[in-house]
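QA checklist item 7 of 12: single-chain prediction sanity check.
[x] sequence parsed
[x] length recorded as 80
[x] structure emitted
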Amino acid sequence: MKLDRITSNPKRMNGQPCIRNLRLTVRRVIELLALYSDREELHREFPELEDEDIRQSLIFASSYLDDRIIELPNRYETVA
């Protein structure tokens, strides 16, 4: 799959993967998706961010996650 909107330049944002050479990192796009439940509000706040940018950011981020089993404790401790 071609991720032509994800760029990396050592002289921009410390080489972090960015969207179309903007000062908007893939990591920030993922954070924004978590913060803005309404996509329209996200587009109002960041009009330069396009749907294809979001889609490619998700694909890029997911490519760094591998399928592995993480054992969790049987019960969780709660802090009261």
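[x] summary fact logged: The CA atoms of residues 43 and 50 lie 8 Å apart.
[ ] second reviewer sign-off
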